[in-house]
# Entry
Amino acid sequence: MEAPKFVNNACPIPNLNLSRTEEIELDFPPLQIQQKIATILDTFTELSAELSAELSAELSAELSAELSAELSAELSAELSAELSAELSAELSAELSAELSAELSAELSAELRERKKQYAFYRDYLLNQENIRKIYGANIPFETFQVKDICEIRRGRAITKAYIRNNPGENPVYSAATTNDGELGRIKDCDFDGEYITWTTNGYAGVVFYRNGKFNASQDCGVLKVKNKKICTKFLSFLLKIEAPKFVHNLASRPKLSQKVMAEIELSFPPLEIQEKIADILFAFEKLCNDLVEGIPAEIELRKKQLDYYQNFLFNWVQEQKKNSLSTNLN
# Structure
């Protein structure tokens, strides 16, 4: 208590030297009383040290628990968000791929079955014997060569550059078989009405029914029915079966020339029956084509549904975690 009063603070470093310490005067009670006071002070010092240690331990434990809870909550939230995002992305990719593959497989299988059905009924309905079974045993048939019932023409040279430089609404049909054989669209119109086109080179022998304004490239042959006994649609269905049989495959590129097309012989029932059969087959063909066009749209719709439900479930899980963390902190 007394020593600090004699410290020399005038120096840069405060000090209490030995000579000054020796000069400090102190008052003492009897020895017995000194010993009692010293014992009391020692006890008090020990109790203070114990109390300080206990308080320090308690505060450290509380602080550690609070910090641990906060850090755990933050870390848990961050990890949960990161893992959930990664998991969601992975699941979304996997499920989308699986769904797309499954849908494509299912719809493609259905399409193949429809095409098989169509081919079966087309061949059945165009067979002379079956036509007589359905419409009567005495149904007469007439046989013609294509040149006897049709005007036969060929398309003209139409380049891709010409199509780019002359844009319009009228399709240009070529030797391609995808996209209904359409190469592009221009403002010109070489044909207008009901026609049949066929591919002369490359994928030779593929037949299309046309109705409206269009153009044909030089790799396309064009037929215009001139005989009133013949239904153009019915003729197109007959040629879809018969024309491929006359394709010349010995050359480097398969061909079905105008000359060969002109010589093909076909048999026809009366016009009324031709029209009935053609209407049935045309409706069936349209159904198959609609299914082909509908596959990508169906897959896209299912993907959107999948994304919606994935997002809904992900947000719901996140909300539940937030509520759980809030409850634990409170």
In short: The longest strand covers residues 207-216.
